[in-house]
Amino acid sequence: MYSEKVMDHFRNPRNMGEIPEADGIGTVGNPVCGDMMTVYIKVKDNRIDDIKFKTFGCGAAIATSSMVTELAKGKTLEEAEKIGRSDVADSLGGLPKVKMHCSNLAADALHAAIEDYEKHKGTKR
Amino acid sequence: MSKTKRIYMDHTAGKPVDPHVMEAMMLYMKSLYGNPSSVHSFGQEARQAIEEARTKIAELINAERKESIIFTSGATESNNMAIKGVTYRNKDRGTHIITSSIEHMSVLNPCKFLMTKGFKVTFLPVDQYGFVNLRSLEKELTSETILVSIMYANGEIGTIQPVKKISQIVHGKNAYLHVDAATANGQVPIDVDNEGIDLLTISSNDMYGPKGVGALYIRKGTRLKPSIHGGGQERGLRSGTENLPGIVGFGKAAEIAKKEMPTESGRLKTLRDKLIKGLLDNIPRSFLNGHPTKRLPNNAAVRYSFIEGESILLDLDLKGVAASSGSACTAKTLEPSHALRAIGLKHEEAHGSLLFTLGKQNTEGEVDYAIRIMPDIVKRLREMSPLTPKELKE
């Protein structure tokens, strides 16, 4: 059902956890749907210096969260904003069709975190 | 980690075929392959084998005569045949059907189909354990009701219905009672006479027979329309050349089930209770789905808060244990199981559900292993989950 890459990220998720003093936090999905994820970013010189995630959901939800943090880490905010759902799925060697819609929310969570950062930029959190 | 050790605990989804069953079937593929409708000795041997299988199945459920057993391709066909066959044949008497909200799709969907053909269907609610509300049943039954279809036991939560009580209520209003006993047959003794069942669905693989075979018991005098028209086999109700090796295997499986049931059910109950206790005792915020005692001997259904069923299954599989879940992500529909929703679970509670169904080859050592690996799996996923409250993180 899942590719080797998906299973690898599910087994050994990269960047799992929280950033206590994050510059931006984005949460998408909800527990009712069975998938919910939060992405935390730390921004330095317009780059994503650190990124972490927390996810409730199926194997695809966890793997896409892990993958999106790997794709975004070290990128400028402009570059990170361009990471889309299909980039995440492609980097994982594809996802089962039924998972493309509901469990592939990681890119949205990243974008929400960036938006949150932009909104609070210059203000103390 | 190596995957040398594989433990199968998903017997409601599929069971291995008993070696004695396979042996019995072989003969009817290799040497005795005649068509049961033929006049020659090949045909007569096949006919005899089918009638012997019919007798064994009738004996398993205490049917009044072997002719009351009609062979089908499985539980889905039997359920369709019972529901559509009875309602179409008896619509002069009424057009109302009653069923429950936790039935299998092969009961719910024929009922929904009949709603488009002018029939009225009532879906009875169930309580937190999954028991059908008998007062609602009494209230909803009218002189228009021709059929009530209630499952013997639910495969997802294990709950066994009070079938005898249900049949007394149903027969008080002169309706027919159909009982879907797939998953229950072979695990618990079923007595169509004593329990007052007019139509009973059973399936072969549920008792270690081959897949693709089932039967519908039809009490003498029950009127129903044929489901498949053709050469008139199976008393004209279900035409088509009989699945000879499948039926022979089904018969053998029924014979073995009848003999082994008392000891095997007792053994499974002991394992089940140990498994349930182990899955809940060492893990906070864990719950049993279904009733503690009135449940199928092989069924251990639990749920864990803050995590999702499919990821639990994947982790279990990586450690060599095959189980099942009512979670949305394992189904085609992306909705949590209707049975879990019907017992009152919220979506997020249903998502964390996990189902172990034991079988003949499972040992106590395997149960111990499943119990041993569970806390770490739940811990790992809870650490990842944004829903996990602080106090659970130590």
What does this structure look like?
The complex is a heterodimer of chains A (125) and B (394). In chain A, β1 (24-30) and β2 (35-44) form a beta hairpin. Chain A has helices at 4-11, 59-72, 77-81, 85-91, 97-102, 106-120; strands at residues 24-30, 35-44, 47-56. In chain A, α1 crosses α2 (59-72). Chain A is α+β, with helices and mostly antiparallel strands. Chain A is globular. Chain B has 394 residues and is an alpha/beta fold. In chain B, the strands form three sheets. A seven-stranded mixed β-sheet of chain B has the order 2-8-7-6-5-3-4, sandwiched between helices. In chain B, β5 (145-151), α6 (163-172) and β6 form a beta-alpha-beta unit. The model of chain B has no long low-confidence stretch (mean pLDDT 95). Classes of the chains: A alpha+beta (125), B alpha/beta (394). Chain A binds chain B through residues 2, 7, 10-11, 13, 16, 27, 31-38, 54-62, 98-99, 102-103, and chain B through 306-311, 314, 318, 327-329, 332, 334, 336, 346-348, 351, 383-387.
Main attributes?
heterodimer, A: 125 residues, alpha+beta, Sufe protein. Chain: A, 3-stranded antiparallel β-sheet, 6 helices, 3 strands, globular, B: 394 residues, alpha/beta, Aspartate Aminotransferase, domain 1, Aspartate Aminotransferase, domain 2, 2 domains, 7-stranded mixed β-sheet, 12 helices
The assigned structural class of chain B equals: alpha/beta
Calculate Rg of chain A over CA atoms.
14 Å
Mean pLDDT of chain B: 95
For the largest beta-sheet of chain A, the strand count, sense and barrel status come to:
3 strands, antiparallel
Shape of chain B: globular
* The CATH C-level class name of the largest domain in chain B: Alpha Beta
Question: How does the major sheet of chain B shape up?
Answer: 7 strands, mixed
Order of helices and strands of chain A: HEEEHHHHH
Q: Looking at this structure, what is the CATH superfamily of the largest domain in chain B? A: Type I PLP-dependent aspartate aminotransferase-like (Major domain)
Domain count of chain B, please report it. Answer: 2
Radius of gyration of chain B, CA atoms, in whole angstroms: 22 Å
CATH topology of the largest domain in chain B: Aspartate Aminotransferase, domain 2
Summed up, the helix count of chain B is 12
